[in-house]
Design a protein that fits this description.
single chain, alpha/beta, Alpha-Beta Plaits, 316 residues, 6-stranded mixed β-sheet, 2 domains, Rossmann fold
Length: 316
């Protein structure tokens, strides 16, 4: 299947700073493709090149949303939710949405009909005549989301859609992303919330300092990078944690900030879980034991650390 979006050895610099370096990837039709990375990784620069805000210094970007293949995203088939919100704060909500719909090629009556449907669904219809700046940050985010999707784009580019939202709003937006994918929309998602991304993304690309360090489905990443399972122990007495740290197979122990009796244990490479647990229950009082598979967050942190170590070693 021909990719919807393809980057081929794309690079971008700002003065002496190399923001994106020889980046290549493709996005398949109908999938959720996530760009992940720490601050300064190059995600936002990549998104801005994709939508045409800035141009790459070298390499090529190809877009195939219909029978045409171009280097410019067709505005009538593309929805863009920017990291820096772009609403007119002193304009009423409904008028704002109709305006954005008209910009994307809709007739006025159709733009109004779709805006009303979205506002009703997102429980904002009773506030359609209020100024945008009268809404809470979460509701402004909902209006921005509608403005990005009111024309039913084939490709939706969502840059940090979960930032600043409470957990309930994050879950709500996550469900909307899932619905878009089920409807056949291709989605490029840039976000920091690893646990949310893991639940919705089909494939991810991990970036660090402008370069790709890992890419693939979450299952593939688990297999390509040693991300060990987490062992969670509920202890009788947290004063016994030092005894756990003395175990030769323990690499790190983190105390849960929400429950001080919970200790998350990371074992060293190659260490087996069963022998460690046998030793642990003889050294400390354990109320309960559970293990969890590695999360995307764990894979991400480890991959970035290893990449940073390689870079620092090569520059020494």
């Amino acid at each position: 299947m021909e990719p919807v979006v393809q980057f081929d050895r794309v690079g971008k610099s700002f003065g002496q700073h190399r923001a994106v370096d020889n980046l290549s990837f493709s996005v398949r039709r109908g999938e959720v493709f996530a760009l992940l990375g720490p601050n300064g990784a190059g995600k936002t620069t990549t998104v801005r090149m994709l939508v045409g805000v800035i141009r790459p210094d070298e390499g090529r970007m190809v877009v195939s949303l219909d029978s045409r293949t171009t280097e410019v995203l067709p505005p009538d088939k593309t929805g863009y939710l920017p990291e820096d919100r772009g609403l007119y704060r002193d304009i009423p909500v409904l008028r704002t949405l109709v305006y954005f719909g008209r910009l994307r090629g809709l007739e006025k009556d159709e733009a109004k009909r779709r805006a009303v449907e979205w506002l009703e669904r997102l429980q904002l219809l009773d506030r359609k005549d209020e100024r945008v700046d009268a809404l809470s940050k979460g509701n402004q985010q909902r209006v921005q989301f509608i403005a990005s999707l009111i024309h039913k784009p084939a490709l939706a580019i969502l840059d940090e859609p979960f930032t600043g939202l409470d957990p309930l709003s994050q879950e709500f937006f996550l469900s909307l992303v899932s619905e878009l994918r089920e409807a056949g929309t291709t989605i490029i998602l840039s976000a920091h919330q690893m646990d949310l991304v893991e639940r919705v993304a089909d494939r991810v690309l991990l970036m660090n300092k402008g370069r790709e360090i890992l890419s693939g489905s979450t299952e593939e990443l688990h297999g390509r990078l040693d991300a060990r399972p987490r062992i969670r122990l509920t202890l009788e007495d947290m004063n016994t944690v030092p005894a756990l740290r003395e175990d030769p197979d323990v690499e790190d122990i983190v105390i849960d900030s929400d429950d001080p009796n919970e200790a998350q244990v990371t074992l060293r490479d190659g260490a087996a879980v069963a022998p460690f647990l046998t030793r642990a229950v003889t050294r400390v009082g354990v109320r309960s034991i559970s293990t969890e598979p590695p999360r995307l967050h764990d894979i991400f942190v480890r991959a970035v650390r290893e990449d940073d170590n390689r870079r620092s070693g090569s520059s020494a």
